Amino acid sequence: MSSATAPILITGAAQRVGLHCARRLLEDGHPVIATYRTERPGVQVLRDLGAVVLFADFSSETGILAFIEQLKQHTDQLRAIVHNASAWMTEAPGNESAAFNAMFGVHMLAPYLINLHGAELLLRSTPADIVHISDDVTRKGSARHIAYCATKAGLESLTLSFAAKFAPAIKVNGIAPALLLFNPEDDAAYRAKALAKSALGIEPGSEVIYQSLRYLLDNPYVTGTTLTVNGGRHVK
Ligand SMILES: NC(=O)C1=CN([C@@H]2O[C@H](COP(=O)(O)OP(=O)(O)OC[C@H]3O[C@@H](n4cnc5c(N)ncnc54)[C@H](OP(=O)(O)O)[C@@H]3O)[C@@H](O)[C@H]2O)C=CC1
Ligand SMILES: Nc1nc2c(c(=O)[nH]1)N=C([C@H](O)[C@@H](O)CO)CN2
């Protein structure tokens, strides 16, 4: 299978950024294997567009390994793996360990195991890429999302380690966004405060992540790099 027809795996593609990027990859002619955890309208949209859509719950090792086995039944080659799936959880009083373990699973254990077990599929494609979606908040930490930030920082560490391990056959990079899309429950005060944190002061939407992903897929001389896509929060 040529790299032009080898599928791109993107996780957490039922909605928002993952769904947008999966649709844009399909538009650009890439076959797509997309994972979902909850059956949302976006899942059927991807099926209708010809994507292979697989259930995956990355909150446990069992769920991750079950997905990897399912993945290998659907393809023997991959052009790229995009680790987008994520849970944005605050500290849960009385349930701290469960929240931490859930975010460790989806932000760190799943990328770690999928990369290790999926490398053989990527090695049959040239070029080949792994992209981790982290979060600009790792620059300074977060008092309100401690476990989220810690596990995203761990994901950025995986970018460096896997870039060293898999070079030169596989490029491994990250994208660290700040605010991309508000959630429906975000009120006007929260929205104004979030927008004021960046120099550019906008809610950019998902396309800025696809533009960053496109750059990483197309550039043969970038690995071990995490792109900051934060509207200039670090200069505000
Ligand atoms: N939106 C933003 O403003 C920002 C986003 N980011 C990062 O960008 C990426 C995309 O963001 P966004 O689209 O908002 O993400 P979402 O919050 O919409 O999450 C994406 C998907 O991840 C899935 N997911 C969550 N936990 C698990 C799990 N345990 N196993 C499998 N799938 C799981 C969700 O599935 P389900 O449908 O079942 O809930 C969801 O559909 C994420 O990595 C996020 O951390 C970073 C900074 C800002
Ligand atoms: N998995 C998610 N991670 C993050 C989200 C989200 O909706 N899902 N949202 C944010 C915020 O937009 C934050 O960047 C600004 O308030 C961060 N991560």
Which helices and strands occur, and which strands form pairs?
Layout: E1 8-10, H1 16-27, E2 32-36, H2 41-48, E3 52-55, H3 61-74, E4 80-83, H4 96-122, E5 129-133, H5 146-166, E6 171-177, H6 188-195, H7 207-218, E7 226-229
Parallel strand pairs: 1-2, 1-4, 2-3, 4-5, 5-6, 6-7
Helix pairs in contact: 1-7, 3-4, 4-5
User: How many domains in all?
Assistant: 1
Q: What is the oligomer described by this structure? A: single chain
Average pLDDT score = 97
Elements, N to C (H/E): EHEHEHEHEHEHHE
Short summary of the structure?
This is Dihydromonapterin reductase. This protein is of the alpha/beta class and 236 residues long. The chain has helices at 16-27, 41-48, 61-74, 96-122, 146-166, 188-195, 207-218; strands at 8-10, 32-36, 52-55, 80-83, 129-133, 171-177, 226-229.
Description of the molecule:
The protein is an alpha/beta fold. Helix content is 43%, strand content 14%. The protein is built from seven helices and seven strands; from the N terminus they run βαβαβαβαβαβααβ. Strands 3-2-1-4-5-6-7 form a seven-stranded parallel β-sheet, with helices on both faces. α5 (146-166) links the parallel β5 and β6 (171-177). It is globular, with a radius of gyration of 17 Å. Bound molecules: NADPH dihydro-nicotinamide-adenine-dinucleotide phosphate and the ligand Nc1nc2c(c(=O)[nH]1)N=C([C@H](O)[C@@H](O)CO)CN2. The ligand Nc1nc2c(c(=O)[nH]1)N=C([C@H](O)[C@@H](O)CO)CN2 is lined by residues 86-88, 135, 178-179, 183, 194. It catalyses: (6S)-5,6,7,8-tetrahydrofolate + NADP(+) = 7,8-dihydrofolate + NADPH + H(+); 7,8-dihydromonapterin + NADPH + H(+) = 5,6,7,8-tetrahydromonapterin + NADP(+).
